[in-house]
Design brief:
- This protein is α/β, with parallel strands linked by helices and about 325 residues long.
- It has 2 domains: about 1-170 and about 225-255, Rossmann fold (3-Layer(aba) Sandwich); about 190-220 and about 260-295 and about 310-330, UDP-galactose 4-epimerase, domain 1, CATH 3.90.25.10.
- The chain has 11 helices and 15 strands.
- It has helices at about 10-20, 55-65, 80-85, 85-105, 140-160, 190-200, 225-240, 240-245, 265-275, 300-305, 315-330; strands at about 1-5, 25-30, 45-50, 65-70, 110-115, 130, 160-170, 170, 205-210, 220, 225, 250-255, 260-265, 280-285, 295.
- The strands form 5 sheets. A 7-stranded parallel β-sheet has the order 3-2-1-4-5-7-12, with helices on both faces.
- Helix 4 runs parallel beside helix 5.
- The longest helix has 21 residues, at about 85-105.
- The chain is globular.
- The two termini are about 35 Å apart.
């Protein structure tokens, strides 16, 4: 089937596009290239533009009337930046997405797989969260994701739009062909920061927050190999109608994670084990908007999508290191 992938030049979007292709589907890429590199699009059908450009959306559907689903990944995603630039985050993540949804409904393309975030969850005593756990988004970025979930749920009740909302945990690693990965020159993602410190591109890896209410004082996260995350999107596209029918609702929220929690110190230890040597580490206070963290209960995704992670934390770290060696060849910079 043909699938429109917004943000398809980004890290998760390009990996998802490859997973769709390997499953026999045809991804169509819509990306403004605000952050994602053009090289990640490769030779896929590509439309450069804004998700709120209704004229462009009408052109895409006119040229590809057989689009069966949209995967909406396009968004601003840097938590500290959302604290300092909330207007840009609410404009791009909320207002523009609302235009996208409305136009796709008008064009008769109502199936939507939405990229949400585990950063919505409130702190849990045991750090495990399921889809019904309390929400308490701590940053403008996270609040934009919560707003979009509410908008999708309201639209699904009032219109023909139907939505699978995937709450991502923390993707790391690269695709198996090493065609794409973390692309920022200095990535905000924790594993990208570790790779830079390990390769001597920065003096040390900084642990932000060391007095948090976790087993070792550092934040806890659920790290999922980005390839497993991409495969969850494939399952969501292929089983879209079945998931909604089985749930009996016009929209469904699904956690997408590994199902286990890893603290930052534990991640550093795992990284050093895979890398084969120590990484210089320094400590600092939490960044603005940072959450203590959580890990996913993935029972619903396992039941409805017949999906679970296949890769280990060590696999994902090794994949990230391999991408670190390929970055310059692909992107032209380290």
């Amino acid at each position: 089937m043909k699938v429109l992938v917004t943000g398809g030049a980004g890290y998760i979007g390009s990996t998802t596009a490859l997973a769709l292709e390997q499953a026999g589907h045809v991804p169509l890429i819509l990306d403004s290239l605000l952050s994602g590199p053009r090289v990640f699009v490769r030779d896929r059908t590509f439309y450069e533009g804004d998700v709120a450009d209704r004229t462009l959306l009408r052109q895409i559907v006119a040229e590809h009337p057989d689009i069966e689903c949209t995967i909406h990944l396009a968004a601003r995603i840097v938590v500290p930046q959302s604290v300092s630039k909330p207007y840009e985050y609410y404009r791009d993540n909320v207002m523009k997405s609302l235009e996208l949804f409305d136009e796709l409904i008008a064009l008769g393309k109502p199936r939507m797989v939405f990229s949400s975030s585990a950063s919505l969850y409130a702190l849990s005593d045991n750090f495990e969260v399921d889809e019904s756990s309390p929400l308490d988004p701590m940053s403008p970025y996270a609040r934009t994701k919560m707003m979009m979930e509410l908008i999708l749920q309201d639209l699904a009740c009032a219109t023909e739009l139907r939505a699978l909302i995937l709450r991502y945990f923390n993707p790391i690693g690269s695709d198996p062909l090493l065609q794409s990965g973390i692309y920022a020159r200095e990535p905000s993602h924790v594993l990208g920061q570790l790779v830079m410190a390990a390769r001597g591109q920065k003096n040390a890896f900084t642990i932000t927050g060391t007095e948090l209410p976790t087993r070792d004082g550092t934040g806890i996260r659920d790290y999922i190999h980005v390839w497993d995350l991409a495969l969850a999107h494939v399952a969501a596209v292929e089983l879209f109608d079945s998931v909604l029918e089985r749930s009996g609702r016009p929209s469904v929220v699904l956690n997408v994670g590994s199902g286990s929690g890893v603290t930052v110190r534990e991640l550093v230890s795992a990284f050093e084990r895979v890398f084969g040597s120590a990484v210089p580490v320094e400590e600092a206070p939490p960044r603005p908007g940072d959450a203590v963290g959580a890990y996913a209960n993935v029972d619903r995704a396992r039941e409805l999508l017949a999906w679970s992670t296949q890769s280990t934390l060590d696999d994902a770290i090794a994949s990230a290191l391999a991408w670190g060696e390929m970055r310059k060849a692909v992107l032209g910079y380290e």
